[in-house]
Each structure stands twice: as C-alpha cells, then as structure tokens.
Recover the amino acids of this structure.
C-alpha cells in the first residue's frame, strides 16, 4: 500500500493528501477553470501532499486528434506550473504515464453495475449530444476510470489515517459518490483496502459564468469565444472581451444574482482575483458606472494572466525540461500507484509473478 506521507513544513502529523485531475481537452484553461479549480490546486499544495493529474486517458473518450491531444497535454502541464503548482512539492503527472490507472479501472469496472454506471448524469448528457453511434464504451466507463485515479492514491487504512481530499466542482459530485461506493464495495468484498475519499470544496472556489450569457456556466464546450476568457489569451482580445461582457440595464455596480447576473459575475471575478470582499467593491464603484469598473477589471485579469502566459510559453520553449518534470512526476506517482495495485491484485486473487 502507499507509503506513509512525509510531513510537509516540519509538522509532526503527516499532511493529508489531495488528488485532482483535469482533462487536456482545450488549447488553454479558462478563467472558470482557474478560479473554480486550479488556483485552489496551487494553495492546497502548502497544506497537503498533492497529486495533480492531467487525465489524457479520459480525453480519448470522445473523438480526438492524436497530435492535438499531445500538444494540449503539454500545454496543460506547462500552465499548471506557470500558475504556481510547484514540481518540488506537488506530484504533477500525465495519467497515461502510470498504467495502474487503467488497470485499477478494469477491476473497479467489474464491481460496477451496468445500471449504476448508466445513472451517471454526465454520461447521459454527453451521450445524448453524441448520439448512440458516436458514444463510446469509454465514455460510459469514464467515471470508473475517475474512481481508479482517486483510489490509487487513498492512504492505507490506519487508526489516524485521513481521507484523501478531492477538490471538485458540483458537476463531479456524483462521480465522487460512485468512487466512495466502489471503495466501500471493494473493502466489503475483499477486505479493507481503501479509505473512502472526500469531496472537498476549498474556500474561495468561485463559479464563473459566460461573459455573454451570464446565467450559463463559462464552459469550453458550450460557451462562444466571446463568452470565455482563456488564460493564454493575448492581452488585446482579453481586454476587449471584458469590456464587451454583457452587463444589465441600469448603471449601478451591485451584486444581484437574479436581476444583474452579468454584473454579479464580473463582481465575483473581481473579488476572487483581487481578494476584496464584494461589498467593498460595491462601495468603491458606487456612482462610477460600468465603464470604469470593467476597465479596472480588464486590467486586473491582464495583470493576473500575462505572467502566466509568458511563463507557459517559456516552459513550452524548453520541451526537454518539461519532459523531465513530467518523468519525475510519473515516477513519484508510480511509487504510490504500484504499491496500491500490488495490494489490489493480491486481494482480488490474482497469482503473484513470483519475483
Ligand atoms: P472542465 O473544463 O469542465 O473539465 O472543468 C475542469 C475544472 O474546472 C473542474 O474542476 C470544474 O469544476 C472547473 N470549472 C470548469 N468551468 C468552471 C466555471 N465556469 N466556474 C468554476 N469552475 C469551473
Ligand atoms: N472528470 C473530471 C472533470 O471533468 C476530471 C477528472 C478525472 C478528475 N479524474 C479525476 C477530477 C479525479 C478529480 C479526481 O473535471
């Protein structure tokens, strides 16, 4: 089973573990990914033993282009480092580099009911968009692979073992519930092996909506280019998108989710990026109008993302270094995953190879 986690920051108790994953399915992460998830990945590495995985196996559950996948995987990894995920402290790796993910997914798939998998709402949504001919079995078993991702890194059960924390958005809650169910079922059938992981919604995670349709989530698949701000976007278009974001009738910069969804979304972005309470922003912009507010927000977004863009391009310019960091991440992740999988193989009843 996974070795005991080493204390971080000199504390006596081992730091709790955190695991999260993100798909390399876009040319850049967007503002929603950043404020809703990735920024928390950066802060969690201070207090946790962190494992962050770019889930390229998940990315092939829908049709893809091999060259594009390869590029996007590297761009995703480079962006994580550029945002401040520290390769010294966090284990950052590509899912396909650790074959135990696919292997454990097989075992867990054999513990999952067909009907149970069919009740996953994300599968129902995605498959209804693809049509049955375009829906792969991989898309159906996607949540089982996600369960394997997570369970490979759960700590060994012990008297004071802390559950693995999995920071995910609301849309992933059902997958996490399935993960817990499968962990419990495995333990029941084969003996206690996994500590059930916990969904973890870190403080400060914000839900960001589309700049053009502020009642819908900012989303790489559903948003129009004008509705979404990419982390790697050039400064000119980035500024324009914020300036052209849909605001509402009226002129007051006030938070009102029902009547002023557009302004409310911009206030949330502003507040999250600057670390200022929304009430203080309302006071600051009282009587100032939308123009000045948006201008300042555009500057704030630029100031946040410009260094990230530059650092990402720098990292992508040195592929050998990026590959070295990836190899090291894979090696560290493997150390844990291999041990978990050895236990699983043994518990399930596979014969040992005798080495
Ligand atoms: P996705 O791009 O949908 O695969 O999401 C990757 C991560 O970003 C997940 O943890 C999501 O919960 C988070 N995320 C995606 N879109 C948003 C958004 N508009 N607001 C906040 N978080 C988001
Ligand atoms: N399904 C997740 C998403 O779409 C990505 C993911 C894959 C994941 N494996 C994971 C997230 C394990 C957390 C833990 O966002």
């Amino acid at each position: 089973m996974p070795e005991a986690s080493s204390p971080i920051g000199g504390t006596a108790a081992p730091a709790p573990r955190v695991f999260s994953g993100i798909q390399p399915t876009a040319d850049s992460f967007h503002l929603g990914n950043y404020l809703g998830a990735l920024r928390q990945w950066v802060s969690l590495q201070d207090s946790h033993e962190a494992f962050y995985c770019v889930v390229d196996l998940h990315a092939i559950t829908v049709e893809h282009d091999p060259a594009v996948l390869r590029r996007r995987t590297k761009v995703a990894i480079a962006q994580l480092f550029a945002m401040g995920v520290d390769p010294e402290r966090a284990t950052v790796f590509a899912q396909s580099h650790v074959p135990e993910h696919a292997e454990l997914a097989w075992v867990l798939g054999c513990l999952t009911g067909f009907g149970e998998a069919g009740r996953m709402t994300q599968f129902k949504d995605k498959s209804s968009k693809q049509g049955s001919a375009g829906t792969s079995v991989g898309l159906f078993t996607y949540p089982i692979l996600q369960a394997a991702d997570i369970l490979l890194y759960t700590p060994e059960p012990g008297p004071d073992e802390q559950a693995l924390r999995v920071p995910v958005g609301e849309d992933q809650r059902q997958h996490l519930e399935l993960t817990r169910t499968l962990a419990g079922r495995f333990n029941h059938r084969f003996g206690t092996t996994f500590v059930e992981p916990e969904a973890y919604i870190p403080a400060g995670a914000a839900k960001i909506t589309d700049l053009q349709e502020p009642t819908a989530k900012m989303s790489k698949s559903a948003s129009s280019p004008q509705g979404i701000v990419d982390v790697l976007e050039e400064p000119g278009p980035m500024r324009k998108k914020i300036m052209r974001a849909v605001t509402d009738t009226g002129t007051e910069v006030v938070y009102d989710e029902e009547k002023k969804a557009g302004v409310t979304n911009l206030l949330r972005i502003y507040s999250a990026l600057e670390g200022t309470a929304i009430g203080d922003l309302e006071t600051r912009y009282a009587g100032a109008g939308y123009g000045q507010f948006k201008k300042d927000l555009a500057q704030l977004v630029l100031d946040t993302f410009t260094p990230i863009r530059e650092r990402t391009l720098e990292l992508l310019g040195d592929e050998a270094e990026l590959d070295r960091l990836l190899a090291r991440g894979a090696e560290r992740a493997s150390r844990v995953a291999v041990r978990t999988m050895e236990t699983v193989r043994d518990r399930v009843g596979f014969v040992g190879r005798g080495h």
Q: What stands out?
A: Residues 19-23, 55, 58, 146, 149-150, 166, 168, 172 surround tryptophan (ligand 2) (CB under 6 Å).
